[in-house]
Specification:
Strand content of chain B: under 5%
Oligomer: heterodimer
Helix content of chain B: over 70%
Number of helices of chain B: 5
Distance between the termini of chain A: 35 Å
Strand content of chain A: under 5%
Order of helices and strands of chain B: HHHHH
Number of strands of chain B: 0
Helix content of chain A: over 70%
Number of strands of chain A: 0
Largest sheet of chain A: none
Largest sheet of chain B: none
Structural class of chain A: mainly alpha
Largest interface: A-B, 24 and 36 residues
Radius of gyration of chain B: 18 Å
Number of helices of chain A: 4
């Protein structure tokens, strides 16, 4: 039973990778990229474009990343703090 | 780890400069390559250099473990508080509501600077905690 689940999971994942490969070879028209490059400096006052994107336009994803960090730190502290 | 003279002198003379460089990376995050995450890891590496070369007793003297725990929680809560303050100012969650302008030629990005500092607190404290617990585990096995 678990062997079937493993085979199913691997098949699904490889199908997803194949889809990503094919999709990556034919990209969508670059509307968002041109808009971000043009108006990145005027709307957020940051010369560094990476900072302007991950703290100005998409700051919610940065919040999710801090959640991931807290989860990983608490996992390590829990595993390492146990007395044997 | 056995304490030798070379490790002692080099760690004590070098780690303030590493911490200073970490602060530079954090506060100039919107002008040159850097930012909250990179500066936080640089700050953590300065603290970890002291921890590795002086032993875990330094953590009680200069960087107490309780304060580092509080710093991490404070960083996370501060992020959420700034987002809610953006909501209260009437514009939207995590929006730029501080009209801070730079002086002269350098642009001053209002909210981005605060967010960088808070993120660096959180990331630096988190990485320091991970390395401290891994070091303690390895030390007990000796």
């Amino acid at each position: 039973m678990t062997r079937m689940m493993h085979i199913l999971a691997l098949t699904l994942f490889s199908l997803f990778l194949l889809y990503a490969l094919i999709r990556g070879a034919n990209p969508a028209p670059p509307l968002v990229r041109d808009y971000l490059i043009e108006n990145g400096y005027e709307e957020t006052d940051a010369e560094n474009m990476v900072t302007a994107i991950y703290l100005g336009y998409r700051a919610f994803d940065t919040l999710g990343e801090t959640i991931v960090l807290i989860a990983s730190v608490s996992g390590v502290v829990y595993l390492m703090g146990k007395k044997q | 780890m056995r304490k030798t003279d070379i490790l002692d002198v080099i760690s004590r003379k070098l780690s303030p400069f590493i911490l200073l460089f970490g602060f530079y990376l954090v506060t100039y995050g919107h002008l040159s390559p850097g930012g909250g995450f990179q500066g936080g890891v640089a700050l953590a590496s300065g603290i970890i250099l002291l921890l590795l070369c002086q032993g875990p007793s330094i953590m009680g003297k200069y960087f107490p473990l309780k304060k580092i725990n509080y710093a991490e929680a404070l960083g996370y809560l501060g992020f959420i508080m700034i987002g809610i303050a953006g909501l209260l100012a009437g514009k939207g969650f995590l929006s730029n509501f501080i009209p801070v302008r730079g002086t002269g030629d350098t642009p001053g990005a209002g909210l981005i600077l605060f967010l960088n500092i808070i993120i660096s607190l959180k990331v630096g404290a988190g990485i320091t905690l991970i390395c401290f617990y891994l070091f303690k585990e390895g030390d007990e096995n000796d």
